[in-house]
Amino acid sequence: MRTTLIFATNNQHKVDEMRSVIGNEFNIITLREAGIDIDIPEPHDSLEKNASEKSSVIHQLTKQNCFSEDTGLEVIALNGEPGVMSARYAGKTKDFQKNIDKLLANLVGKDDRHAQFRTLISLILDNKEYLFEGICEGKIITDQKGNKGFGYDPVFIPNGSNKTFAEMTIEEKNVFSHRRKATEQLIQFLKENGTH
Ligand code: IMP
Fold first, then answer.
1. Which atom of ligand 1 is found nearest the CA of 165?
2. Cβ of 149: how many Cβ atoms within 10 Å?
3. Which of 34, 50, 117, 178 has its CA 20 to 30 A from that of 137?
4. Is the dihedral of CA 167, 169, 172, 176 positive or negative?
């Protein structure tokens, strides 16, 4: 029987991206599919701690194997901001457009537009926690392009491409993506630990 893991997120974009990497190898079920209706808090000052918080909340609730992920956009010229505040950069409403507007405004006049997405996955397997990281380096452009994806995708071009993430299909984004890299480590770990 395939291993079932609850994915501690309410973000359908993340679910679609991770399922496209995991395929049918493992059975990933979302919070909604598990019948859990909560907005998990992200109270900490690091991606690592927030990822741990999310998986541990769901583990305490369900006692089942589960994982979470926390991702931030880290912009060099902004000293790593928005980072852990990426979702709430322009306020509690978590509005993607307002976040992009604030980011572009804060970068006006800055020559260095280098940035990276960093994803932390926290897995709880048989009551033990394991962390996996994926990084994608690139740059922030001045005008939005594309309407696929989510979050900061319309203003981020990964190194090695001339398209923004929002101009790519999920499969194209996977070639470069932070989330794909972290997810592959998760899959590798599950396989090495005899989980099928
Ligand atoms: P969280 O991991 O749910 O806290 O999400 C952090 C925020 O980062 C999201 O609300 C998005 O704005 C942004 N974000 C996370 N992953 C991506 C991505 O792959 N592309 C673009 N933006 C992302």
1. 20
2. 22
3. 50
4. positive
Answer for the pair 174, 20: CB distance below 8 angstroms, yes or no.
yes
Q: Which residues line ligand 1 (CB under 6 A)?
A: 11, 42, 70-71, 73, 86-87, 94, 96, 99, 117, 149-153, 165, 179
- Residue 34 CA to residue 176 CA, distance in Å, equals 30
Q: Which domain holds residue 183?
A: 4-192
pLDDT (tens digit per residue) in 62-81: 999 999 999 999 999 999 99
Looking at residue 128, its pLDDT comes to 96
Q: Please state the domain count of the chain.
A: 1
Chunked mean pLDDT (size 10), the chain, 196 residues? 88 94 91 91 92 96 95 98 97 94 97 98 96 98 97 98 98 98 96 78
Q: What CATH number did the domain enclosing 184 receive? A: 3.90.950.10
Which residues belong to the active site?
Answer: 70
Q: Which atom, in ligand 1's list, is nearest to the CA of 99?
A: 12
Residue identifier of the C-alpha nearest atom 22 of ligand 1? 151
